[in-house]
Amino acid sequence: MIRAALRWVLALFYAYAGYKHLVDPAPFLQITPDWVPFPQEVVFWTGVAELLGSLALLQPWSKRVRMAGGIGLALYALCVWPANINHMMMDMAQPDGGWGMAYHVPRMIAQPLIIWLALWVSGAVEWPFGKKRA
Fold first, then answer.
1. Rounded to whole angstroms, how far apart are CA atoms 122 and 5?
2. How far apart, in Å, are the Cα atoms of 70 and each of 4, 10, 101?
């Protein structure tokens, strides 16, 4: 029950983020590191990936598709981590300190939790709640 509820929460979070990537890419382009080629296209396709991952998590017909969606979203969260780090460094360098450490530190800590959550709610991993093997 908790896993299903968190799967819905995560899917809605990613669906909203994907939608925002497509309709308002400017904030995402601002935090994209300079070394990323074709930033507009990357932001567009990351939005598409978030929407597809959300749909995969929510579809009720195939556990394999849910797992693929969870693995895809986990890999996506890992790949966008450099943009989050870049955002923190750019933001903290502002004269007013930007959003501050109270925003950025929890965000950095949340990233591996989001990666794990995508894997767990999709059924790709059972850790740490799975049965222990003898």
1. 11
2. 13, 10, 29
**Average predicted confidence (pLDDT) for the chain:** 91
Domain annotation covers residue 132: no
Number of structural domains (the chain) is: 1
SS3 108: helix
Q: What is the pTM of this model?
A: 0.86
Domain of 116? Answer: 2-122
At residue 46's C-alpha, the angle toward residues 27 and 31, to 5°, is 30
29 in the Ramachandran plot: left (φ > 0), alpha (ψ -120 to 50) or beta?
alpha
- For residue 129, being part of any structural domain is answered with no
